[in-house]
Amino acid sequence: MRHARDHRLSIEDYLARENDGVVRHEYVAGEAYAMTGASPRHNIIAGNVFARLRERARGGPCRVFISDMKLRVEAADAFYYPDVLVTCEPAGDDARFMTDPCALVEVLSPSTASIDRREKLLAYRSLPSLGEYVIVDPRRRHVLVHRREHGVWHALLLENGDDQVVIGCLDTPITLDDIYEDVALPDVCEPWEEYVA
């Protein structure tokens, strides 16, 4: 989640500060935005997705990261912290950030919902390696899957428990029941902005 704005800084200064700092920041065109803590539902959902994908990736060429791995999106002059990042590109153990994800997952929060749906959607679509960008609503069973097929992006809204998100680079289906396992959804859905596919 993004919260506060800091002073304008260079990419080098940003990366040095992130390595030394306690608070994480996302970076967009010289501006750093402090990340705030996430709700229990947010964490459980991200953990569920990570666990399912990590199990599939184990022993293979792909790696799965959760929350603390930075993603460099050069076309947007940005660094983000996706909730879940999947990459099949080789990188050293000391890599400070990834550049070639094949799948990204963001779990919405009130403070970042519009950023995840617009700014990050546009930025992530610029990544040639990306096949799926999955946006998960923690208030209700709504998962929006943006998928690139033959160079064209399509959006699909999933709402039923047995609906599946297929992460192509891992050839792994994840049902909504998997994503929302052990998550107590509220009886009333808070009035955030609705999905626009």
Annotate the secondary structure layout:
Blueprint: E1 2-5, H1 11-20, E2 25-28, E3 31-35, H2 40-57, E4 63-66, E5 70-73, E6 78-80, E7 84-87, E8 97-98, E9 101-107, H3 113-125, E10 132-137, E11 142-149, E12 152-158, E13 164-167, E14 172-175, H4 176-179
Parallel strand pairs: 5-8, 9-10
Antiparallel strand pairs: 1-3, 2-3, 2-6, 4-7, 5-6, 7-9, 10-11, 11-12, 13-14
Q: How are the strands of the largest sheet arranged?
A: 1-3-2-6-5-8
Q: Classify the helix fraction into a percent range.
A: 10-25%
SS elements, strand count: 14
- Which of globular, elongated, flat, extended, rod-shaped describes the shape? globular
The H/E string reads EHEEHEEEEEEHEEEEEH
Radius of gyration: 16 Å
CATH top level label: Alpha Beta
Ends apart, CA distance between termini: 22 Å
- Biggest sheet layout: 6 strands, mixed
What portion of the residues fall into strands of 2 or more residues?
25-35%
Q: Provide the CATH topology.
A: tt1808, chain A
Key phrases:
14 strands, 4 helices, alpha+beta, disordered N terminus, 23% helix, tt1808, chain A, six-stranded mixed β-sheet, 197 residues
Question: How does this model look, in words?
Answer:
With 197 residues, the protein is an alpha+beta fold. It has a single domain (38-179), classed as tt1808, chain A. 23% of the residues lie in helices and 34% in strands. It is built from 4 helices and 14 strands. It has helices at 11-20, 40-57, 113-125, 176-179, and strands at 2-5, 25-28, 31-35, 63-66, 70-73, 78-80, 84-87, 97-98, 101-107, 132-137, 142-149, 152-158, 164-167, 172-175. The strands form 3 sheets. The protein has a 6-stranded mixed beta sheet, sandwiched between helices. A hairpin with a 4-residue loop joins strand 10 and strand 11. The longest helix has 18 residues, at 40-57. It is globular, with a radius of gyration of 16 Å. Mean pLDDT is 86; it is low at 1-6.
